[in-house]
Amino acid sequence: MEKRRAVVIAGGEIISYGRVRSFLGPEDYYIFCDSGLFHKENLNVEPDLIIGDFDSHEKVDTGSEIITLPEMKDDTDSLSGVKLALKRGFKDFLLLGMTGRRMDHTLCNLYLLSYIKSHHGRALIVDDWSEMEVVEKEEVFISDSYAYFSLIAWKGKCEGVNIENALYPLSSAVIEPEYQYGISNEPLKGGSRVWVEKGSLLLIKDWRKEK
């Protein structure tokens, strides 16, 4: 079976494994990045590729392809996994274990969305609370099954920001990094549509209401 999507798994926190597993499919190609191997048993999938410097998890022999990286390097293990997948022709990515207590790793991993986008791919980060993707000129639909969604100016000023059928609609608006007001919107019945004419937005879709 041809593998059509690269699932890159890092070592960030995953609590709701059942929810994360619901995003996985039979045609996925699984890349475990170093401490991402801690999630292997709970995700119940076998690696196609293991990559890392193995400073956070011991090297394991699963019969999978293993690439050992030097400890002294510029790229994180996660970025190394993404780069290799792009080199091998993958354009569709699901990124797991990318967020958590380490804010430095979380922010760095969020920018993997932009890196993949700049290489003509598409990517989604899923964690225990939300789904994250980068929106540029394309139109994105947000189902009314989500509790909230937020738009963040991601790489500078965003111009021509449009939100239709939401609690807080926008038309040809501007969002700048210094004034982020596109937070905690709510899709109305039938779902919302979002697009931006210039710039790069980080779209965060939260799937459950706060208690």
Describe it.
This protein has 211 residues and is an alpha/beta fold. The protein is 17% helix and 33% strand. It is built from 4 helices and 13 strands. The protein has helices spanning 17-21, 40-43, 77-87, 103-118, and strands at residues 5-9, 28-33, 49-52, 65-68, 92-96, 122-126, 130-135, 140-142, 148-153, 158-164, 170-175, 192-198, 201-206. The strands form 2 sheets. Strands 4-3-2-1-5-6-7-13-9 form a 9-stranded mixed β-sheet, with helices on one face. The protein has a 4-stranded antiparallel β-sheet with strand order 8-12-10-11, with no helix packed on it. β2, α2 and β3 form a beta-alpha-beta unit. The longest helix is centred in the middle third of the chain and has 16 residues, at 103-118. The protein starts with a strand and ends in a 5-residue tail after the last strand. The model has no long low-confidence stretch (mean pLDDT 91).
Topology (SSEs and partners):
Blueprint: E1 5-9, H1 17-21, E2 28-33, H2 40-43, E3 49-52, E4 65-68, H3 77-87, E5 92-96, H4 103-118, E6 122-126, E7 130-135, E8 140-142, E9 148-153, E10 158-164, E11 170-175, E12 192-198, E13 201-206
Parallel strand pairs: 1-2, 1-5, 2-3, 3-4, 5-6
Antiparallel strand pairs: 6-7, 7-13, 8-12, 9-13, 10-11, 10-12
